[in-house]
Amino acid sequence: MLVIDLQRDFLDSDGWFARVIGSDPAVLREVIGPVQQLVAAARSAGIPVIHTRRGAPIGSAGPLGRALVCGEPGWEICHEVAPVAGDHVIDKPGFGAFRGTPLLELLGSLGATHLVPTGVTANVCVLSTLLEAVDRGFDCLTVTDAVAAVDTELRDRVLDLIRYPHGLFGALAPTATVVAGYSRVQS
Question: Which of 9, 92, 140, 145 is catalytic?
Answer without folding.
Answer: 92
